[in-house]
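Please predict the structure of the following assembly.
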Amino acid sequence: MIQLIELTVNGERHDLAIEPRRTLVDVLRHDLGLTGTHVGCEHGICGACTVLVDGAPARACLLFAAQVEGAEIRTVESLAEPDGTLNDLQRCFSEHHGLQCGFCTPGMLMLAEGYLAEEPEATKEEIREVVASNLCRCTGYQTIVEAIDDCASRRRAAFQDQLDRSTA
Amino acid sequence: MAEPPQRSPHLRRDGAWVGASVPRREDPRLLAGRGRFVDDIVLPGMLHAQFVRSTEAHAEILSVDLSEVRAVPGVVAAYSAADLNLRGVTALLDRPPHEFVPTAMPVLAHDRARYVGEPVAIVVARDPYAVEDGVEAAIVEYAPLQPVVSDTAALAEGAPLVHAEAPRNTLVDVSLFATEGIDAIFDEAHTVVEVHTKTGRQNALPLETRGVVADWDDRDEQLRVQTCSQVPHQVRTVLARCVGLDEKQVRVIVPDMGGGFGQKCVVGREEIAAAAAALRLRRPVKWIEDRRDALTAAFLAREQRYAVRAAFSAEGEILALDADVVCDMGAYSCYPFTAGIEPLMASAEMPGVYKIPAYRVRGRAVTTNKAPTAPYRGVSRPQYVMVVERVFEKAARALGLDAVELRRRNVITVFPYKGVNDITYDPGSYLESLDLCEQTLRDEGWFSRRSDENRVIGIGFSCFSERTGYGSGAFAQRRMEVVPGFDISEIRMDLNGTVSVTTGTLSHGQSHETTMAQIVADRLGIPYDRVKIVQGDTDRITYGWGSFASRSITIGGSAVAAASVKLGDQLREIAAHLLEADVDSAELDGAGGVRVGDRSLSFAEIADVAYLKAHLLPKGVGPGLSATASFDVGGDGTFSNATHGVVVELDPGTGGIEILRYVCVEDCGVAIHPQVVEGQARGGIAQGIAGALFEQVTYDDAGQPLAPSFMEYKVPTAAEIPDVRIEHLETPCAFTESGAKGAGEGGTIGAPAAVLNAVNDALRHTGVELDDTPVPREAIFRALEKA
């Protein structure tokens, strides 16, 4: 059986004819060619496939593409500028050596992006708890937590700076 | 172009780049989701493969019926062992039959299934969903045999044989050293302590599972195999042999790789079967291992049993060590290392950092009906270091001495040191790391917190070294049929004065695209972003040994340095001629050129002559700018060392273990990129903690795996892995080109010992000692309940 669905990914609309059993991560990777999202376990534990669905982190291996019709999907490919310039979160990961092999990294980035958007005041301990949603086999997690915490601090400082200037 | 960085002052180095934590060259693509991993590769007409796998741990295979499989919509082909008729894989040691029994690992099982998950047939279909449907339709008839599911069952009298040719299920049995008079030493010793330990079976668990994309290329007349392997040339050799092609007809390419940790440093049968299917079908075939298969049917490691005695004098001098090691290697010997990998490592290296005058060891590899094993980060060293460090803790208790003081009296302090195991240790900082680690925990106040009577807190240490950069000589002592060791590098400068450098090593998270570029940058005096590291392609790189055993920077890094120096000499010779000066007066200017007195030529100007105006070259100098160099480590290799200190708190209510503090004082010689070294240490420590406290591959009595998903196989997360304070010491290696020693495995090696010692220290008032890993929480709960 083939089903027609409409999917919005990184602001771009796609019309797809797929089997209803096709998972979101397979559609992203193999139908849309967005291979930045990785597959690590296909049972929702490792989080390598984490993407944003309407802003919230979700396991793309546990969702059928047909379930998220009409939602806004964001993948790691949306973070950097079109010219390749990395965003602040990505730069923090690099500065803190928050990645080694890079396989879990897209999932960690999207997890952090979604979480910080919701909880910009997150403490380092809260960030650690959230990072515990995903697995990394290379880093021992410390530098991932530090990278996200640093990014959160910088965003808060920038926001405060903006406020100060607008009230000055 | 990158600017030379500011250097931290305590590190010795000879240029601007080595020793600086510069931005990683790998990061931008990996962060942007623009890396290229095996599963990201799509070829026109590509098919997808999966395997029909044995559901029995031990059985005769009576029949394999794939007719229903071939009828499933989307399935293109299905092959059993009889259909493909491939040569099996046999890894050899050059040892007599009573020490080593060779066994073949068939690419697909035919007459006998030896573990649950063993591949029996390969199914190829148009998409990954259809192939799963196809696998379901296979009918395999088994006549079950009694499975052998533990080392003790394997060695029992009258046990069923996993391989008919291996009596007592023993693949390796070596007795080594046996210092004369050792029995008398034990008889007369003031104190003798014993340690009996069993360590759990573990999965190296790269987050990217194994996988391959294979296709026959008519234009190149080559079978092109893109696979995530730490050892591409070994894959080429074995694959060519199995399918009957010349080596030149096989090209192995390694794209970005999502971790390996040893699991990918052996040749897997699935990649051979998938390539054979592609060859037969003349269409691209992709196989991506799913997590269930990765947890049950991939190469495993670490299941070992130790019975160890140690003799001490009244003053706390260790006098003798007597060890019996049995490693449960599962169903097959891995290529190229064989089932000897774990027992031979443990046997050769166990005396470690201590001055032990007498030593005797028996090391055995037994075969069982479990998934086979491969080297895993640290290889046996996490286990025997744990055992030896338990020896010291127990001896300290028996002698009424402080355990750190006892170590202090016994660690090697004068180098080079020739050990009782016939290994010469190059200089390290064994005592210094021990002192600094203890002092750090003392300064942070942990020793006073330990005596808080309302809390159950313990402190544990491990002091160890690891041989890194095994050269050909050191590997030859193992008596492998193929002897890894050297590395070859080719460097080429282009018209712009930038260089590309090949390495036979294979980075998959270790950052060699950055660190090797730093080494080259210093040798030539150019920024590191003008150096391109080329790796992981058997057509572009001379035969190499890949990355394992912390060999890449020691050996591969030395080869790139040596090639750079040769190229530098070539540049000087040409420049001297062009400037009409003596070659001895020409020197690299550290700014991308050659200087003679106050005149200089840029590399681009020299390259312009070498390629575009070759008539201006000096007599006898050919056109072009390139050089090749090789490097091997002579003698016994170089030893990195470290001391780990751990503080744990036990929860009497649950038996839970929380790590409150982790300090690592490490010495890997000159750190090329300190941030990368720290990353290797932290990641290694996390894997060591995983083995000590969390992860275990278990089977029921029928040999059925009990941990086929992440729900049962507990990989620790950020909630369980603590932050690690790292302190660096630096004892430069005298014979690697940059003074570096290996840094990839030490974290994993030191962690189980330190964690287990800390747990036992916290239990000191209970009279209970725990020596097995992963540490059972129930035993802690019961010990604390009684106390």
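Chain A has a mean pLDDT of 97. DSSP finds five helices and five strands in chain A.
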